[in-house]
Recover the amino acids of this structure.
């Protein structure tokens, strides 16, 4: 049996065609300038001082986003991924987190008045006072 390299088994147009279809796929062109909405991909975006009051960011990808001093009052963040996001000084008054992921996020100096934490994952997050949430913190709590 002869084993041929994959390049010999795949038609020559597969690479360019595949690249075209991936680029045209919904969400593939996500950018930091995209409007707020469910499922938005703002990973790595600089959203310092952003005004996102009442924003629906359900299922949003906010990993490694800079949300320093952002206003997220009454925002819905259910099932959003905020892993390593920087929320330093952010206003999260009455924000709804549901089952969001805030693993290793920074909340130092954030306003957490009446936040609905739900089943949020805060493992390793930096709390408002600089305390690091334990890796064993139960969902919805920072121990």
């Amino acid at each position: 049996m002869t084993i041929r390299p994959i390049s010999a088994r795949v038609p020559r147009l597969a690479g360019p065609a595949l690249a075209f279809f991936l680029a045209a796929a919904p969400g593939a062109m996500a950018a930091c300038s995209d409007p707020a909405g469910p499922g938005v991909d703002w990973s790595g975006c600089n959203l310092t001082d952003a005004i996102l009051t009442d924003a629906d960011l359900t299922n949003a990808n906010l990993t490694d986003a800079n949300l320093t001093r952002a206003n997220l009052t009454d925002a819905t963040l259910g099932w959003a991924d905020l892993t390593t996001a920087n929320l330093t000084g952010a206003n999260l008054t009455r924000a709804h987190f549901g089952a969001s992921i805030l693993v290793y996020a920074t909340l130092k100096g954030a306003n957490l008045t009446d936040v609905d934490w739900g089943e949020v994952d805060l493992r390793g997050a930096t709390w408002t006072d600089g305390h690091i949430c334990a890796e064993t913190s139960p969902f919805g709590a920072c121990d």
